[in-house]
Amino acid sequence: MAAAGIKDALETLKKHFGFDGFLDAQEEVVDQILSGQDGLIVMPTGGGKSLCYQLPAMCLDGVTLVVSPLIALMKDQVDALQEKGIPATMINSTLSWDEQRQRIDQMKRGEFKLVYIAPERFRAAAFMDALKEVKISLFAVDEAHCLSQWGHDFRPEYMRLGKALDKIGRPQAIALTATATPVVRKDILEVLALREPFETVSGFSRPNLSLSIVEVDKHKVKHARLREIVSQWKTGIVYCSTRKRVEEVGELLHSWGVKSIAYHGGMTPDERERTQNIFISRKADVAVATNAFGMGIDRSDVRFVLHYEVPGSIEAYYQEAGRAGRDGEAAYCELLFNYADTRTQEFFIEGANPGYKTICDVYQFLQNDSDANFEIQRTIDEIKDGADVKNGMAVGSALGILIRNGYLERFDIPGKRMKGTRLLQPNVLTSKLNIDQYALEEKERRDREKLDSMVHLCYGRQCRQQAILEYFGEEDAQTCGTCDVCINAFGGEAREPASDEELLIVRKALSGVARMSRKVGGKWEGIFGRGRIVQMLMGSKSQEIKRVRLDELSTHGILKPCGTAYLNELFRSLQNAGLVFTQRGEFPLLTLTPQGEKVMLGKSSCRLVWPEKHQVSAVKESDMIIEEFGFDGQLYDRLRDLRQNLAQQERVPPYQIFPNKTLEYFTRLRPKTMDAGMRIKGVGEVKAAKYLQDFIDEIRSFD
Predict the structure, then answer these.
(1) Is 153:316 a contact under the CB 8 Å cutoff?
(2) pLDDT in tens, 398-439
(3) What's the angle, vertex CA 61, arms to CA 59 and CA 67, rounded to 5?
(4) Beta strands of 474-567 (E only): which ranges?
């Protein structure tokens, strides 16, 4: 773009949008779009992504089509543009064909500069034919991660957009998203078939966000954290995994007198729009919602985002967290992590990835149930029962796969809210379905891998923002200094082993993991959790250890001199360094990574944050004899979680409650009375009065 073009764009920016200059990366993107290039723009939430196509739309001669996934998102954008005097409209399923035709006629006459379109509109042949008569200057795909099967919010309708571009004459096209890994970015470029595109990845860092992940084991702890965060930060979004949890948390906030709204997919479109507008217009302070809420929400004063349960991927987590602090001011994001919550995400993964057999079962039922016109009027639940499928989500996903492969189509039933199903190739037998089984398996594998990465982030002790930026492919990402890891004393600098002794400790720990894992097809699989592995390395003689004969392993007791607190922190460092990882399942099981195996065998070194060495001397008087129990890593973790919760309530670092070595003494000696507890090193009168009873109660409940 020539200098005069830059000047014209700046004048348009001031005239229509009221800005005197660009934000970071915006000028470069606008420059490349106005030069006529296709492109992919990855820009963090709050970075001014929408302006990157709205401003060029005002500078170009024709109309800019913007593909947007949500009706509410379209409405927000169109309303905001119309308030600025910019001619904009939208076309989606809420409009009749006559209304759509009228707006297309207005587009032909050049009455609109921006038209937001739902992706499913591109399925209609009449709509596509009508678009051929419109002068389209730019085709912008917003929330472009939705078109990648490897993205966190895949929407099948987006897969048609590459062919749609061809049918309307292949105008200049750009794709925009806030979160996309290198794999997803590659997929976007291929599906849209962008021509010699520029790529702008302006960075994912949100320095104004303070990220925190807190391990919790009880709902009452979640309730307490919710109340504290709402009280401190006032305005924000609480994300829940299910409709049931949204309603539960919404009722809880209402009982506390908090002005709040509840939003989920079970509401009608009118209910969702009305509820969303209450939040946007600041008539409510807190929104409790499932993950659909917030995409493109134009409310800049969101001061906190609380994830009540673990999301299914880092992409989803960071996009949702990024809805806080869009005004650039400080905001707080906390995730309440309980490993048991991953079962909900497992259920979602199963629902989103029906196996080939499930797809065949659904298809066979539809064939058997179809009428003379090869049509079926059945609800999803009826199809689920008829096809004997356990997961109702899997039925919807199976229908989507059959639709994309040309075997079915869905149609509206007059006077009913449900949709009907029509067989498009009724003569094709179930045994002859041509569906890529490898692609089905690969998508499920990647979805599970994403959940693994999310769990790894929760357990890890690396700077939260640094870990996320590295996940998105940024090199040399810096620590943020404000997350829970950075402000915790344990989040120190990573380094290589300072001595052969340190390296030997790591190799022994990894050997212990290997002895308590199995290798299948060249990959390590875990059998035990971290707590049990630490027990074995400490030489525990507990019944749990003896029952499964772990006391007979060559690594039994091999690291007893290190102490259990040291080993627990060491394993967190090993996980953060990518030497061990936690598998999903009913329980978190620890095993080796390929890099961990190399370090164990002496074929590679490592860099990690080294825990503080602890002296094992628990009792104040040397002549005092106290029974020592077999160490249990689960108890240590529970005491550590209790300390974390108390520290957050008191607004102090965890070590000021009790240091790690005192927690180890509690774990080994298990005091049941205040007198016994006060005889343990690190417990003074002041701390005993404030905190000791809570720890004694936790030990009693454990035993």
Answers:
(1) yes
(2) 998 999 889 999 888 888 878 899 999 999 999 999 999 998
(3) 80
(4) 517-520, 523-526
